[in-house]
Each structure stands twice: as C-alpha cells, then as structure tokens.
Amino acid sequence: MDYILFSLLGILLCIIVKLLNSKPDVLQFNQKITVLEEEKILLIRDNQKAKDKIEEIQSNYLSDIKAKEILIENLEKNLYNEEQSRRTTLSQKKSSEVRLGHIAEKLAPFLEDFPYSPEDATFLGQPIDYIVFDDSSVVFVEIKTGKSKLSAKQRHIRDLIKNKFVEWKEIRIQ
Which long-range contacts (CB under 8 A, 24 or more apart) does 132-141 make? Predict the structure, then answer.
C-alpha cells in the first residue's frame, strides 16, 4: 500500500510541477492587457477622428450643394428674365418694322422708286396695297420693306393674276 501511496504522491507531485510550470505569468498577462487597452483607446480616438472628418466633409459637401442649388436657381431666374427681355425687344422690333412698313406703303407712290404716277395709284391696304390704273393697264402693287415676304393670301392673289384668273364684274344695285 505504501507503494501505491508513493505512486499517487509522485503523480500528484508531477501534476503540481506541471501546473506550476504551465501557469501563466500574471505580470505578463497584465502587461498584455494594458497594451491591448491602450491600443483600444487609440483605435477609439482614431475612429472618432475619422467620424469627425466624415461629418466635416459631409457638412462641406451639403453646403456646396446648397450653394450650387442657389446658384442654379439664380441662373434660371436670370435666364428667364433675359428670355423675357429678348422676347419683348423682338416684339418691339417687329412692331416697329410693321409700323415702318405701313408708313412706307402710304409714302411709296411719292418715292423715286415707284414707277407709276401717284395720281393713278389707289390705296387698298389689305390684302394688296395699291391698284394702279394707267392708260394701258391695271396693275396690282404690293409694297414690301426689308426682308418681309408675301403672306399666303398675297401669294395666292399673285398666282391668280399670273394665271389670268381675273374677271370684270359689273353689279347694279337698285
């Protein structure tokens, strides 16, 4: 029995020695924990710096977007105002050209370029400006200024006259 007891004590002694040899050093563990905690604190700081930087970039980006939206809105307003101004100017220009044309129509028989006698010209105004009755013919005259062109109705009348679809009608009223 002593033999068994010594054997058990030997085994127990081996286990204790083994445990003592394999037992980690508490100081070394504490140092590792301290290093890991410091690294954790640094990572948290770096993470917060990164978050702050992202927020700053987003804020700047949103400010830039807002500024550009305001710029676009102002440019659209300016464009609209410019378009309106140009339309008004164009309308005024066309209106003055029409008035100038009307004046020129009435003065045409008295200008050098008018090949007929003013006494022979009778002003109609619409759709043809004049009918000239001279000794040898009856002439339909349309006065144009600048780049103006015949209207569709005036072209139609011109074509009827050229194709000799002109008649004389005498109407008696009682």
Answer: 141/108, 141/116
Please state, in angstroms and rounded to a whole number, the distance separating the CA atoms of residues 154 and 129. 10
In this structure, which amino acid lies at residue 136? Answer: S
Q: Quick one: which H or E segment has residue 48? A: helix 26-107
Query: Quick one: which of 156, 145, 148, 150 has its CA closest to 105?
Result: 145
Report pLDDT digits (tens) over 10-45: 787 777 767 666 656 677 778 888 888 888 888 889
Round to whole Å and give the CA distance between 6 and 16: 15
Distance from C-alpha of 132 to C-alpha of 140, rounded to nearest angstrom: 6
pTM of the full structure? 0.48
Phi, psi (rounded to 5 degrees) for 126: -140, 140
**What is the Cα–Cα distance from 61 to 55, expressed in whole angstroms?**
10
- Rounded to 5 degrees, what angle do the CA atoms 121, 167, 174 make? 90
In 3D, which of 141, 142, 151, 145 has the Cα closest to residue 98? 145
Q: Which residue has the tokens 């044309």?
A: 101
User: Can you read off the two tokens belonging to residue 26?
Assistant: 């508490």
